[in-house]
Amino acid sequence: MRMNALFMDFLTIQLPTYFFLYMAITLLYRNRKSKINRIAALLMMALVMYFLFEYLKTSLLPQYQMQLVLYGSAPALLLFVCTLVHLSVLLGDQLTRPLHKWLPLVYASPYTLWLYFLLGWDHHLLYNEHVTDGRSPLHPTYLLMSITFIIGYIFISALLLAYSWLRSKEPRRKVIYRSLLLNDFQLFGTFALITTLLQSGVIITRVSMIFYFIGYLVWAMRLRHLIGKYNIMPDYRKLFQILFESAPNAILLLDLKGNVKEMNPRAQRWFADVPVEQIPAQFELDSGQNLQQLLSSRLDQPQSGEHLEMRMNNHGQTNLDLIAGMDRIAGANEDLVVLHLTDVTSLKETERRLIQSEQNYKHSAHHDALTGLYNRAAVEEQLQFKIASNERFALVMIDLNHFKPINDTYGHIVGDQYLQYIAQQLRTLAQKPGDLIGRIGGDEFVLVLSCPEHVDISLMVQTRLSLLDDKVFRQDDLNIPVSFAAGLSVYPEDAPDIIGLLRYADQQMYNRKRQKHLDTVLHVNEL
User: Fold this and answer.
1) pLDDT one-digit tens code per residue, 164-203
2) What's the CATH number where 514 sits?
3) 272 and 217 fall within a common domain
4) Which of 65, 142, 189, 502 is 20 to 30 A distant from 233 in Cα terms?
5) At residue 524, does pLDDT exceed 50?
6) Judging by DSSP bridges, how do beta strands 444-450 and 478-481 pair with one another?
7) Are residues 272 and 414 in the same domain?
8) Measured between alpha carbons, how far apart are the two ends of the chain, in Å?
9) What is the C-alpha separation between 201 and 134, in angstroms, rounded?
10) If 0-12 CB within 10 Å is exposed, 13-18 middle and 19+ buried, where does residue 259 land?
């Protein structure tokens, strides 16, 4: 008979108690970062402890029933109702946030009263072990206070859920609060009914424990179902949808062939007049690939987060410069690519202006403003490079004859045009990549020619300069023949450095100019 009672208690109370333990573990496994899940798991563990102590008291250790009830079942049951109120406050989210500061009082009140009875009352008075007629062995005052807290906290939990249900504006949350509220009413009704039947003697303690267990189990399973099904935590899908729709950059969801599956409002505004199937063709990459080719070339690359620069045709308007981020999403029904597009047109335009400004500055720093040829500093810099690389070259100094009379007679505007004409003609003399031309003074120019070892430098220079001998500058009714004197120096034969080369070529030039002047004087005297 004793074994049958033990087996019945184990089958009806202890074995199903493990369902509470299972539910506590699964709640934590689902989301242990969620405070709601943690408190719900603690609530389940309180029920585990309560029914474990009840089983020990009823079936295994009846000689210690007083201690098991006062030090085990009672605090476990109080923990259950405290966590029930705590859970209801958390479920209310923003609606019940002001009540968070009262949660310490919720826990402290019943446990303070429990300690008062344990420390101030005789234990045998609190729990009469000789009551065997089915009535509760607890002292009426202690029992009344315990029932008051239990029913009161369950009622408070129901009020909190009712308040959240009435005040919530979200239809989804209203459904959750209503279901939880009905679940609390079921628990409240079950506890009140079983307690009434027990106190009136209709059922005995052993039977009441079975009914208590069934009622709590049904309630707990329903609670876990609601937390798991509706996920009381924020609706992340909804949040992601809000982020997707409100993102300041354009977002496109593509399949691996480049077809557009979805796009956010920003992207829709960009492509308002473009058919969906033509959207991928609007993008141009710096590599020359189109969007489909880009995706095809990266199908075998598992990394995500790649950023690319591309341009988008904006239907006859100014094209957009874009920074594109690509992320591949795997594991759904099909693999997809998320394309994040950030408009950086203004930044790129600023960058282009800065680059152009820098180029203009460098050009101005190295070029003569009037003729566009290298200035003296740039010529010396280029010559330094050639000397450092031990390159053989010829340096030709060219000085224009009668330039001052041209300026004085026809004005500086004609003089400037004459210089520009000379610069244009000199450009035709620089035939090889290593050749360069510069203006190093008012009417002085320099021509640097690359010359391999086997080349006759004097003949090469004479041949080049002969192209200038028959040139005539024509401007309106003016015809001004080009006249100049030239001097030659060769690196490294004539000088090992820039100063020496310039001095040698300058001396050669003035020697020829003086010689030409003497020849002219002699010719006049002969006449």
Assistant:
1) 888 887 777 788 788 888 877 777 777 778 777 776 777 7
2) 3.30.70.270
3) no
4) 189
5) no
6) unpaired
7) no
8) 161
9) 6
10) middle
Question: Among 4-13, 15-24, 162-171, 355-364, which stretch is predicted with the lowest mean pLDDT?
Answer: 4-13
Average pLDDT for the chain: 80
Per the listing, tokens 């080369």 go with 501
DSSP class of 5: H
Q: Letter for the amino acid at 257?
A: K
In this prediction, residue 373 carries a pLDDT of 92
Candidates 128, 153, 130, 158; CA nearest to 143 is 128
Q: Over 60: is that where the pLDDT of 523 sits? A: no
Sequence-ordered list of residues with C-beta below 8 angstroms from that of 464, at least 6 positions apart, any chain? 429, 431, 447, 449
Give me the sheet containing 484-491, strands edge to edge.
Answer: 436-439, 444-450, 393-400, 484-491
3-state secondary structure of 323: strand
| CA dist., res. 142 & res. 137, Å (int) | 10
Asked whether the bond before 492 is cis by omega within 30 degrees of 0, the reply is: yes
* Token duo for residue 32: 């242990």
Active site residue 443: yes
Lowest model confidence (mean pLDDT) among 169-173, 284-288, 431-435: 284-288
Residue with tokens 């239809």: 171
- Domain containing 323: what range? 248-344
Q: Is residue 498 assigned to a domain?
A: yes
Q: What is the C-alpha to C-alpha distance for residues 398 and 438, in angstroms, rounded to an integer?
A: 10
Looking at the structure, tell me whether residues 507 and 432 fall in a common domain: yes
Q: How many Å apart are CA 378 and CA 399, to the nearest integer?
A: 19
Which tokens belong to 402? Answer: 């009668």
Contacts 24+ apart (CB under 8 A), 272-276: 273/315, 274/315
> Which parts of 56-99 fold into alpha helices (H)?
65-68, 74-91
Q: Is pLDDT larger for residue 442 or for residue 327?
A: 442
pLDDT at 424 over 70: yes
Q: 202 lies in a domain?
A: yes
Same domain, 289 and 375: no
Instruction: Give the whole-number percent of the chain exceeding pLDDT 90.
Output: 17
Residue type, 104: P
